[in-house]
Amino acid sequence: MHLHCVRIRNFRRLKDVLIDFDPEISIFVGANNSGKTSATLALQIFLAGTKGKVAFHDFSVDCWSSFDKFGDFDSTAQPDTPSPACPTMSMDIWFSVEDSDLYKVLNFLPSLDWKGSLVGVRVEFSPVDPDKMLERYREAKTKAKPHIQVGTAERNAYHPWPKSLSDYLDRS
Asked: Helix, strand, or coil here: 35?
């Protein structure tokens, strides 16, 4: 059995990346800022299960506006509009499995009649309870609202924390 490939989504600058591995040896080679360190760190975090090491800034920058849309969506004001999804960070891990190694992956197989050679597992980081997260964010935003000050020529604008769900998650 060997690691066949991984697909990383929404981890740092890796929006949606597929990495194929050679059965013998694989080496990450590329220019600076091409994602080598991010891919290595993602493998470390996802495979070791170190959820305490995942921070808001580990989500792809492309997700930040999606978090804000998710946090600002008001279903009462837009009853016919579907609620935006809360972004997730994930890794699909595919193993090439020989018959002699099937016992290692039995818990992942859909049935004992399985005849394939690849077995996949998805590991995903997302809020345990998105509704509870939204509730806490909206409470903090409601407390901040009376303190918002509009800017004028003589005075700068002031908007206390949190300005958005991404701002809230960044400091939570």
From this structure: coil
In 3D space, the residue among 91, 121, 98 whose CA is nearest the CA of residue 19 turns out to be 91
Residue 159 to residue 130: CA distance in whole angstroms = 25
Note the pLDDT tens digit of each residue in 25-75.
Answer: 888 888 898 889 999 999 988 888 665 678 899 999 999 999 999 999 987
Is it the case that residue 18 has pLDDT exceeding 90?
A: yes
Element of type H or E holding 165: helix 165-171
> What three-state secondary structure class fits 116?
coil
CA 148 → CA 77, 106, 141, 157, distances in Å?
Answer: 23, 57, 10, 8
Can you point out the beta strands (E) in 32-163? 89-96, 118-125
**Quick count: other Cβ atoms within 10 Å of Cβ 144?**
15
Write down the pLDDT at residue 98. Answer: 84
Phi-psi region of 85 (alpha: psi -120 to 50; beta: other; left: phi over 0): beta
Q: Residue 149 — pLDDT band, cuts 50, 70, 90? A: confident
Count of CB atoms situated within 10 Å of the CB of 65: 12
